[in-house]
Amino acid sequence: MLLALPVLLATTTAGIFSSTAPSADQRATQVMGRADGYVSTSDPAATDALARDLAQKVPGLELLPVTGNPAFPVWAKDRTVDVHYQDADWSQPVVQGKYRLIRGHFPSKPGEIAIGTALAEELRLGLGDSLPYRWAKESPAKIVGLVQNPLAHQGSDYLAAAGQLRAWPKTGADTTNVMPSDYGLLLSGAPEAVGSAQALITERQLLLETRSGIANGRSMVEREPGLLLAPGVIVLGVVASGAFTLRMRRIRSEFAHLSALGFSDKALRTSAMWGALQASLVAVPLGWVLGTAISAAARPTLPELTQRDISPYDPLLSDGLVTVLLSLLVSVLTAAFATRYPTGTPARARTRVTPRETARRRPTAAPVLAGLGALLLALASAILSGDLAAWSAVAGVAVLSAAVLTQAPRVLRLLAHLGDRSFSGRIALRAFARDPRRPVSAVAVGTVSIAVAVGVLGTLSSIAAQERATYVGSRHLGQVEALLYAGTPPQDVEEALSAALPKGTSIVRGTTVTDQQALTKANTPALAEGWSVAPRPGSGSEGRLQPIQIVNDAQTFEALTGRQWTDGERAALQNGRVLALSPDYLAGDRVTLAVPVGAEKYDTSRKAAGVLVEQAVDDTTRSRAVAYVSASAVRAWGGVPVDYSVIATTGDQAPPAELDGKLAKALEPVNILMSDVRIERGPEGPTPTLWYIMLALALAALAATLGIVVASSAAELRPDLVRLHRLGIAPRVIRRVVVWQSLAIAVLAVLLGVAAGTGLVAARVWPFGAPVVLDWTAVGSLVAATLVLGCFYGAIASPRRLGNALYRAET
Asked: Which domain of life is it from (predicted)?
């Protein structure tokens, strides 16, 4: 069972991964249906010109326009929601496969739409209902079909007939917000025609996506799921070594009797090796077969977990064969290591050999391993960063952990002295001290399982923390910004946000500088062309506008920078000086203003007194504006302050998902759409469904491995329990002996596993400058589960009918 378990888990993990990771054909079909290539632009005129050019110069090429929009606003009875829009001639075979028709039919004429089943369920819509474009409520679109995206079952899809987006207005009467749209062409034809089209598209500095390009864009693990089998072979080596060591106590006893009868050590070792090979020949293929069967049986449930179609079944035959062969080799090698000198010198030979010094030699494994681990860590420190340093550090931590495991017998002897207060604990721990091979092997197996689980948890948490710590956006994490593109008065938006957000939430206005001429030209004040700071010559940013932000009070300053202003910064703003956030944009002690005069030209003749911030600001602050100034200073320049947004700082770095619905209901009455609301959640954690599945498999490995190890260790304890039973010890005390031993194994495995797992996390992320972050709630749950499982396994492994069971075990 111990040998079959790692192979089973590795095969199951690889099989599930190959099922949940989209195949190259599935990914290509999602992008281009049955076409051979896809090219897109953001300009419909450019797409039409490209289509005409391809039709003239590349004969035999089939072209089909497809228009899409990732944030298309539709009116859902009482509020606006964003959907993923696409229109095309859905009767053409080239687009088949992009969507699966569930009910009804695809839209074939203007005014007909098909929506995703998830969107229909959320909004409680069906065939015959309407879901109109936000700016065309007077001509609602009728739902004629329900569809499903094969790789995104919960997607908010909205399909229309060809040309529908161009027929609808891009903007509404109460807003000037222009939606970003994607105008594409699907290409289908012979390889020669597609190659000629690609050359022509490249000349226009556009990108043609092809099926081969999509397949090559996958990661190595996605292309080769068999790589996931490799860790199983490595874990098998540790487990196999522990398994054979667990059995060596009885094997050595039997070999001692055979050796006394005259059998040679070589013959006995060959016998042990052959037994190990026989066990491997049964366990390893059995593990692969069961793992393949489990992954195949799990396939019907995976679409519900991943919310997408699964890949075609791949039994991993070639990879599985390699795994079986490598596992057999590893098992035999570990058996050879575990069965060295099974009996020592035979009895007949001992009578002819002069006795040697009886003093035990100092073990050399610990210092050698410690030195090797220190050398690997020093090498990682010398390399400092990169994958090579990370893997050197990981290897160093693994070797140092192995060095610590060599000292486990001393720890067990120390525990034996500490266990004298309890009779059952004293019996259990002193049994460990007499023969530490069995508990040490069990602790080693549990340590590896826990270290792997903690390593996975810690690495994911550290990567997520690093991404959030280094995230640079246009606003700080946890902030909500409502853009005033619809011309809504900012005070109305402030009142709506105050009603939707918790009491005490800081709400300020985002204000910039413009002039009366720009205000007259703009449809809404928020889109008036603003003033900026001219880049300093030689700074490398001469072609980039440097926005100015108006700050009048401490609350606005803190919302924009994330810190309080200093006395010097407050005085500079109140005295009409420009507070520059970066020294790159200063020319001496003067700041050059760039005032737009039309046709992308700017007047840079005006200069203002500037001063640097007294404390540093982060990149997110600088990405929003290059300088702060007060409203009174702006008016002194002849400019006009204009509010373009309302900013609320929630204080929560990860605003909950339900906040979107609350904001939609609060802001829709004041004519602010969710497409004009920015909720800064930052990068999401790297824990998709697949990682949860793999983590669950790691925890299953821990539970199963610990259970088998404790049961095997308890089985080896039976002779001692027989002697205790014959001495008249109470059955409950004898059962507690097994529980004490199981708990001791679990405690040592937890301590060493958590320490090794933390070291692995640090070694993996430290060379890249990432912080070491552990989810202590998850780690605590893992530790608690391990200790509870240790006690539980000890309780069920203890014999029930002591007399009969123990006598049978002894005989």
From this structure: Bacteria
Written in H, E and C, the secondary structure of 485-547 is: CCCCCHHHHHHHHHHHCCCCCEEEEEEEEECHHHHHHCCCHHHCCCCEECCCCCCCCCCCCCE
pLDDT at 161 over 70: yes
Q: What distance lies between CA 405 and its chain's CA centroid?
A: 31
Asked if residue 197 belongs to a domain, the reply is: no
> How far, in Å, are 514, 522, 596, 604, 765 from residue 601 at the CA level?
15, 17, 6, 10, 48
Same domain, 670 and 693: no
d(CA 507, CA 394): 47
Positive or negative, the CA dihedral 160, 163, 169, 170 is: positive
| DSSP letters for 555-594 | HHHHHHHSSPPPHHHHHHHHTT-EEES-GGG-BTTEEEEE
Beta pairing, strands 182-188 & 62-76? antiparallel
| Amino acid (one-letter) located at 32 | M
Q: Is residue 342 included in any domain, yes or no? A: yes
* Residue 607 bridge partners (DSSP): 592
Mean residue pLDDT of the chain comes to 79
pLDDT band at 619 (very low <50, low <70, confident <90, very high): confident
> Lowest-confidence range among 171-175, 199-203, 245-249, 764-768?
171-175
What tokens were used for 531?
A: 């003033």
Q: 555-560 — which CB contacts under 8 Å span 24+ positions?
A: 555/506, 555/508, 556/508, 556/509, 557/628, 558/506, 559/479, 559/506, 559/508, 559/647, 559/649, 560/508, 560/621, 560/624, 560/625, 560/628, 560/647
Number of domains in the chain: 5
Instruction: For 641-689, write each residue's pLDDT tens digit.
Output: 999 999 999 876 678 878 888 888 888 888 888 778 888 887 765 455 5
Domain residues for 182? 62-188
Give buried/exposed letters for 66-96 (b at 16+ CB in 10 A, else e): bbbbeebbbbbeebbbbbbbbbbbbebebbe
145/421 Cα distance (integer angstroms)? 75
Contact criterion met (CB below 8 Å) for 288 and 236:
no
Contact 12, 229 (CB under 8 A): no
Residue 556 and residue 444 share a domain: no
**What does the angle CA 551 – CA 512 – CA 487 come to, to the nearest 5 degrees?**
120
Q: Is residue 302 part of a domain?
A: yes
Total residue count of the chain as it appears in this document:
811
Domain check: are 713 and 801 in the same one? yes
Residues 176 and 29 in one domain: no
Confidence at residue 634, expressed as pLDDT on a 0 to 100 scale: 92
pLDDT tens for residues 752-773? 888 888 888 888 787 777 778 8
Most confident by average pLDDT, 104-108, 233-237, 469-473: 104-108
- Residue among 157, 183, 161 nearest 74 (CA): 157
Residue 52 in domain: no
Token code pair at residue 322 = 């390699």
Q: Are residues 664 and 692 in the same domain?
A: no
Which ranges of 766-775 does DSSP label H, i.e. alpha helix?
none
Half-sphere exposure of 363 (CA within 13 A, CB side): 13
pTM: 0.66
Shared domain for 654 and 734, answered yes or no, is: no
